[in-house]
Design goal:
Blueprint lengths: L6 H6 L3 E5 L2 E6 L3 H10 L2 E4 L6 E4 L3 H7 L13 E7 L5 E11 L2 E4 L6 H13 L3 E3 L4 E7 L3 H6 L14 E3 L4 H6 L11 E3 L8 E7 H13 L5 E2 L2 H10 L15 H4 L2 H4 L9 H7 L6 E7 L10 E4 L2 E12 L4 E8 L9 E6 L2 E7 L6
Parallel strand pairs: 3-13
Antiparallel strand pairs: 1-2, 3-9, 4-7, 4-8, 5-6, 6-7, 9-12, 10-11, 11-12, 14-17, 14-19, 15-16, 15-18, 16-17, 18-19
Helix pairs in contact: 2-8
Length: 366
């Protein structure tokens, strides 16, 4: 099983570890509810180094990336981020990713865990081999999320973090100790990359930097008087479900299209050509299942694979579900047939042998 560069730090802190996508990752350090609450009310820190890191560089690298994802990267500003889907020719989602433009001729993408090699090979096979560099092994990334995230991280750098707009990045020096650990051969940047983004619905930052520098920064953050709460995958999941964010292999796979996920407005720019565009345009005129949110009216926690019903008719299936620590009730996402997709529609979730009442609710739930 693979380990991130921060693995030893997690074990020393008493994390309960679990296998996720072939990596041994912290599920929780204390309790999922406590870690969830810390992010909503103060700040939490997550190791997300299990995600992939693919760097593209070259005279036509930006054009190439635009042709192979649903967003037009050619009109991105330097250090702007865009959320995009990478599709096959039939419009099926190979992965969703963040594309960060670093310069006029370079960008990097963050594939989901387990998809890194697949996306690298897909792009290489479609003419991108000359641009591609897989830098996952030498790169760490962690996220500081919550209303106090900026205040905490600001203590470690003289740079004004308030100048970083949402879904933008800045390549900055943090402090002398971090820069002494910084690998000068790291291809992404000459300094750490701090981007204002995340997967929790809260304000915060995702920081990419070489492994040794990441370990040093993680330690510095834990030594602060107001240190961010260490958080694991458990609270990361409850936080992202409360905001309706997609999880690869749970909420979509290659059998689903961007239109079916309901993320077309956020993930597609139609004024450029990209693989899978023709299929998406066809689907605009069709009725099809849509990924929708729902709240439980009865007790019970919905889980991936549970059936969704209207009376005795199966009308869909749960993809993600949890008990919301904020709302104290079951919430989830699932694909629903046409006719049952409007907010407020009464539905039933089959939990074991019982069909329990729920209602369609558009995320975010909080």
């Amino acid at each position: 099983m693979k380990e991130t560069a921060l693995h030893e730090k997690h074990v020393e802190a008493g994390a309960r570890m679990t296998n996720f996508g072939g990596y041994e990752m912290p599920l929780k350090f204390s309790s999922i509810n406590k870690e969830h609450k810390a992010v909503r009310e103060a700040a939490g820190i997550f190791d997300v180094s299990h995600m992939g890191q693919i760097y593209l560089e070259g005279d036509s690298a930006i054009d190439f990336m635009s042709e192979h994802c649903t967003m037009d990267i050619t009109d991105s500003d330097i250090n702007q981020l865009k959320y995009a889907h990478i599709l096959n020719e039939k419009g099926g989602i190979l992965d969703d990713t963040i594309v960060a433009r670093l310069s006029e001729d370079s960008c990097y993408i963050v594939p989901n865990v387990g998809n890194n090699e697949r996306i690298y090979e897909w792009l290489a096979e479609h003419g991108g081999e000359e641009y591609l560099h897989d830098v996952t092994e030498e790169t760490s990334m962690f996220a500081i999320q919550g209303p106090d995230a900026e205040k905490i991280l600001q203590k470690l750098t003289d740079e004004d973090l308030s100048e970083i707009e949402f879904f933008h990045a800045k390549q900055i020096e943090i402090n002398d100790e971090i820069m002494e650990k910084f690998d000068s051969d790291w291809p992404l940047s000459e300094t750490p990359i701090i981007q204002r983004s995340g997967y929790t619905g809260e304000d915060g930052f995702e920081i990419a930097l070489p492994n040794e520098a990441a370990i040093a920064l993680w330690e510095q953050l834990q030594e602060l008087d107001e240190s961010p709460t260490r958080c694991g995958l458990g609270s990361r999941d409850t936080l992202r479900i409360e905001f309706g964010f997609l999880l690869a292999s749970e909420d979509f796979d290659e059998s689903r299209t961007t239109i079916e996920t309901g993320w077309t407005e956020q993930a597609v720019e139609w004024d450029h050509e990209f693989i899978g565009k023709e299929k998406l345009e066809e689907m605009k005129e069709e009725d099809h299942q849509l990924l929708k949110g729902f709240e439980m009216k009865d007790k019970g926690i919905p889980r991936h694979g549970y059936g969704i019903y209207a009376d005795d008719k199966k009308i869909g299936e749960v993809t993600s579900g949890t008990r919301s620590p904020t709302l104290k009730k079951g919430i989830g996402l699932g694909y629903l047939d046409p006719g049952y997709q409007e907010e407020g529609t009464e539905i039933k979730i089959k939990i074991r042998d019982d069909k329990r009442d729920a209602v369609v609710k558009n995320p975010p739930f909080v």
